[in-house]
Amino acid sequence: MNRRRAFYVFLSVLALFLLGTVVVLSSVTYYLAIDPSAYLSESEVPFLDNSTRWNPAEHGKVQRIPRIIHQTWKSETLPARWSGISNACREMMPDYEYMLWTDASSREFIAEHYSWFLDTFDDYTYAIQRADAIRYFVLHYYGGIYMDLDIGCLRPMDPLLIYPVILPKTIPVGVSNDLMFAEKGHPLLEQTIHNLVTFDHSWILNYPTVMFSTGPMFLSAQYGLYTASHPTSAGTEIRILPKSLYGKNAKPEEVPHSFFSHFYGSSWHADDAAFIGFLGTWGKGLMWFGLL
């Protein structure tokens, strides 16, 4: 009898936890909703093959984002798994400057240009938090395109450089930080780098700590805050890259106009990410079972 009671207590606690999770996720979904008008449409972006270049000036447009590709790795030697993908992008767009940010050069850059952030940078628990943070700072300082090493190029990115900021839509909600376009010194990046200190909290587990302190949920919150404070201009300043142009979580035949291919190498995800994924799949069923 005691075992049965303990089992029911466990299920009740689990149900309350899952109910709270559902409430939180529903609230996040509401507050991080993206205005449909912010999405880039395929009709706004010329479709080019992988060898055709596009000059904004020839089409009456102004290039806002400099031709710089930023990537991060712990050392200057990329692993074989990713080096070919990175090299292919650079060979496709040889006029783009390439900047690889290592653990050492990232810290040196923060110490030289954003010394007010160095203590926070050094105190991060996880290396991925520093890898997340540096991408916001280099985009603020230089502008350009940040790309994770597991993203490949299918077409030159030239037509995307006429917008001040582009962020990709991710699932289930918000935007991702694995690919970002930004002009130098854009106010969204100014807000983002300063809010890294405000959002520097531990959520006990690896996955939520990273996601909410420096990762995609953090960036999604910054996008939400910025659009709320700039309701008339944010929709034209910050464009959202839809799945059809981003290509992630889709079969190649479903996104024939995508600029990017994806090789899905998020190696920093720990076992707690799998647990959260389990909750997403089975959480509602467990909640109702626990409430019976």
Automatic annotation (TrEMBL):
Annotated GO biological process: mannosyl-inositol phosphorylceramide biosynthetic process
GO cellular-component term (any): membrane
Membrane-crossing residue ranges in chain numbering: 7-33
GO MF entry, a single one: mannosyltransferase activity
Cited InterPro entries: Glycosyltransferase_domain, GlycoTrfase_DXD_sugar-bd_CS, Nucleotide-diphossugar_trans
Domain of life: Eukaryota
Key words, A-Z: Membrane, Transferase, Transmembrane, Transmembrane helix
PANTHER family: INOSITOL PHOSPHOCERAMIDE MANNOSYLTRANSFERASE 1, MANNOSYL PHOSPHORYLINOSITOL CERAMIDE SYNTHASE
The family this protein is said to belong to: Belongs to the glycosyltransferase 32 family.
Name by which UniProt lists this protein: Glycosyltransferase family 32 protein
